[in-house]
Each structure stands twice: as structure tokens, then as C-alpha cells.
Amino acid sequence: MADPTPSTSEALARLDMSLIDVMMTQRAVRRVYPDPVDDEIVMKCLEVALHAPTGANGQNWEFIVVKDYETKKKLAKRYRQAWNLYYQTVIRRVSKRDPSMAKTARAVQWQVDHFTEVPVLIVACLKLGPKDGRIPFVPMPHAALSGFYGSIYPSVQNLLLAARAMGLGASLITLPLWSVTSTRKTLGLPVSVTPCCVVPLGWPRGRYGPTTRRPVAEVMHLNTYGNRPWMGTG
Ligand SMILES: Cc1cc2nc3c(=O)[nH]c(=O)nc-3n(C[C@H](O)[C@H](O)[C@H](O)COP(=O)(O)O)c2cc1C
User: Fold this and answer.
1) 7 Cβ below 6 A of ligand 1
2) TM spans, by residue (predicted)?
3) 1 falls within a domain
């Protein structure tokens, strides 16, 4: 098994991993060691992230790299509040009949309980720029809203893939940001900057492995919704 806490040069060298292997084994790895992650590795993740597309090529992203204990504690408090509510109202019931959900819930609970020990939290944000017609607090039409939030997630996926290739544990999470006002206060964000998601990064305690996903034929429709001629073909 590869060293879970490699040197920076070893981690960077792992970026030559085959793309298909990276994509097929990237998954939410929530249990990580508290050992530090070198800034060079974090910057490499962000460099890869920045090669993603954005609406009108606005590149209106900002990434807050949180390493400070007190800041992590404030985000951890919000994460626990949101998770407790979500667990009590939805997840506990679903977990009773779905063992995979129960397993995920245990991993989330671990992450909530150890959030301040995660060495790096990257908060991915979007900033309103000159190319962006959005005015804060004014509802956007669907295409604009989709284009707005759609401008952060390709970069976050790139970040996750780079992290996975280097052997870092990472996940995409949104629950700690349930209160945008509180997040802005914690991170000193102006109203023009919207926090979208958090990627906790650290060296993994567990292993990466293949993910379980729905079969392609089940979600692939020809021309109109519901027309699935490939159904049952693999
Ligand atoms: C938009 C979005 C929000 C998510 N929010 C959280 C979260 O707040 N906490 C968490 O533990 N996982 C969160 N996840 C991770 C999902 O639970 C995870 O991707 C899913 O269970 C698949 O896990 P796997 O890749 O390990 O199979 C989020 C994922 C997405 C795409």
C-alpha cells in the first residue's frame, strides 16, 4: 500500500496517474490524519482547479485556504448544527433500511467530530465580477443561476481529482455553509463573494476504492425523457 503521508515530491510525482483511474476511484474520503499538507501540494490542487471552465470565462472564483484552528472551529460548529438537523430529520430513518447510508453517516459523523483536526479546509467561492449580471439578493433566472453555481463545481471536481491522484483524502461538502451570513463573517467575505462549498483535505486514514454508481443505461434517455432503449444493456 502507498505511504498515506508521502513527501511533497512523492505526492506531486503521483500526478502522472492515469486519468481514467483517477476518475473511477475518486470518492469522498472524510477520515484523514491531522498531519499537515504542504502548501505546495495545496497550490498544485488549486492550479489544476483553475483549468476548469466558468460561465463567460469569468474565472470569478476565490478559494479561502483555512488552516487556523479558531476559524475551523467556527465552521465546525455550523457543520455540526446542520448535520444534527439533517441526521435527525432524514438520515437516521434512511440509515435503518440502507446499510450504505448508515456507513456514510458514520463517516460524516467522524468528519463533524474531527473537523478542527483536518489540516486544510478549502472554501470555494464565487465573486460577482464585471461579466456577471447578478445583483446580490436579487433572484436570478434559471439559466443565470445555473451558470452562476455551475462556474464553481468544474473547478472543485478538478481539485478533487488532483487531490485523489496525489493520494490526499478529500470530499466536497456544503453543510458547514448553511448560514451564508455566518460564513461571510467567519471568513471576512464581502457580500459580493458567495461561499459555495468546502473541500477538507488531509492524508487519508482509509483507502480509495471503486465507487458504486447507477448504471449508465438507467440514466441515459434518447431524445426525450423516459425513452431508454439501452435499459438492461449493461
Ligand atoms: C453538492 C454536494 C454537497 C455535499 N455535501 C456534503 C456534506 O455536507 N457532508 C458530507 O459529508 N458529504 C457531502 N457531500 C458528499 C456526498 O455525500 C458524496 O459525494 C456521496 O455520498 C458519494 O460518495 P462517494 O463518492 O464516496 O461514493 C456532498 C456532495 C455534493 C455533490
Assistant:
1) no
2) none
3) no
